[in-house]
Amino acid sequence: MQKSIFNYIEGASLTLRFKACDLDPDKVSSEIGEIISKMNILTSQQKDEFVVATIEALLNARDHGCFELNSKEKGKDLYSPNTYEDKRQKRMKDPKLGNREVQVSINIDANKISIQVKDPGHGIPKKLSHPKDLRPYGMGIKLMRKLADRLIIKQSPSRVILVKYRRSNNE
Ligand SMILES: Nc1ncnc2c1ncn2[C@@H]1O[C@H](COP(=O)(O)OP(=O)(O)OP(=O)(O)O)[C@@H](O)[C@H]1O
Ligand SMILES: [Mg+2]
Is residue 141 in a domain? Predict the structure, then answer.
């Protein structure tokens, strides 16, 4: 019997646009994961990796790119005062920052799925600091690099592109 048409899609592209104040990275990424599952284009593990990497890219675009939050506000460690969340709540309500847009473009072809996350901020610095002691931040880009098959970072405008190559679920 013929399977669902989701199994026969060879290529697709999708563009989503969010106001920073409305953007819920977990929800968006898990819904993208549901589409990937329906289309059966990645193994279940690859799909989970793609979803987690997408959450990190969206968090960065919203918090750093749109709200201009500095991770140092998260505090030196988990016990230090944390002003990050308070500032995030305030900036979300500030129309100038809250109305900034995050654009997400997903492209699927016979070989791969890629997602581009674009924000209107100043861009991801070329040189990222590597603090010697453990901090409760600074893991997002490292995680994206681990989870994606390719990670491309571009500036002006700020863009992150995550790529996963398609493998059959039987491999
Ligand atoms: N879209 C962006 N726009 C501007 N700066 C960015 C953006 N994404 C990342 N950065 C900068 O790169 C740094 C490293 O990002 P990364 O995601 O690795 O860590 P983090 O966001 O600070 O903390 P974590 O992701 O672990 O919660 C950020 O602190 C921020 O200064
Ligand atoms: Mg981050």
Answer: yes
